[in-house]
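Researcher: Here's the sequence for the chain we discussed earlier.
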Amino acid sequence: MTAPILNLTQRLPARLQKILRLPALALALAVSLLAALYWGLIASDRYVSEARVLIQSTDMGAGQALDLGNLLAGTGNASARGDQLLLRERLLSVDMMQRLDQQLQLREHYSSDEHDILSRLFWHESSQEFFHRYYLKRVSVDYDEYAGTLIVQAQAFAPEMAHRITQALVQEGEQFMNLMGHQLAQEQVEFLEQQVKERSQQAQEARQRLLAYQNKKGLLSPQATAENLAAIVNKLEAQLTDLAARKAALLGYLAPSAPGVVEIDLQIKAVEKQIQTEQQRLTSPRGQTLNRAVEEFQRLEMEAAFAQDTYKSALLALEKGRINATRKLKKVSVLQSPTEPEYPLRPRRLYNIATWALAALLLAGIAQLLMAIVRDHKD
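Model: Thanks. This is the structure I predict for it:
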C-alpha cells in the first residue's frame, strides 16, 4: 500500500513534491481542493427574488410643492426615512418569520434533505432563535440612501419559492404600514372626540350655573341694572344741583322761612334721600348689593364664555384631526414587483472558491513564515 503512494509521489514534478513537504501549504491546497469540490459540485443552487418598495405619505404642508423627484426619492416628508427603516425592522422580525412559516412552510423548504447539509436548515425542529438567524441569512432588506427605497431580497432553493417569499414580504409589509397608520389615526380621532364630549359637558354645566344664578337673583343682567341705577343717581344729582341753585336764587330776595324756600328745601331733602337709597342698592358694606351681584354674574358669564370657546376649539381640533388622519396615512408603493428568478445567483461559486483558496494560501504563508522564524531561532 505504501509503495504505490511513494511511486505516485515520485512521479509528481519536483517543485510540487517540494510544496507537499511543507505541511502548511499542503493543508492550504487541501482546503482549496475541498472548497472547489463543495462550491463547484455539492452546494445547492439558491434562487434570488428581488423587489423594491417605497413608502409614500399624503401628508404635505400647505407650502410644499408636489415634486416628482421627492416622491421617487422618498423625501416627500421628513419621516420618510424613519418609515422605511421601521418597515425594514418589521420584515426582518421574528413575527414576520413566523407568519411566513405559517403561510409558506419555510421550515420544510429550508430543512429539506434534498439540499446540501451546509446550506439547509440543519434541524427541522430547531429553536426559534436558531431559525431566525438562518432566516436573516436567506432574507435581506436593505435601505438605499440615495434612492430612498427598500430593496427586499429572498433566497430559496426553488425559484417559485423565492418569488412567493418576496411577494409575501411586500404584501405583509403593506398591510402592516396601513394598519399602523389607521390605528394611529383612529386613536387620534377618538382622543379628540373624547375631548369634544368633555368640553361640551363643561360648557353646558357653565351655562346652567349662569341661568340658575339669573333665576335666583331675578335679574337678566345685573350689569345692565347697575348701569341703569347709576344713570338714575346721576340724574338725581343733576336735579339736586338744580334745586340748590334755585334755593340760592330765592334766598337773594326771600327769607329762609318763606314758603317758596321751604318747598325747595323739602324737594332737596327728598332728592337726597332718593340718591342715598339708590346708592345703597349699588354699594353697601352689609353685602347683598348690586355690585356684588354684578361681580358674581360676570365671573359666571366669563366661565360660560370660556367653556364655550374651548368647546369650539375642540370641535375645530376634531375636524382638523380627522383631515390630518386621512392625510397622514402611508402607502407602500411597489417600484419593482417581486421578480421570478430563472438562474440561481447563489452561491457565487467561483467567487467563493477563489476567496477560500486565497484565504487558505495566505494563512498557510503566514504559518510557514512563522515556522521558518522559529527554526532560525532554534538554530
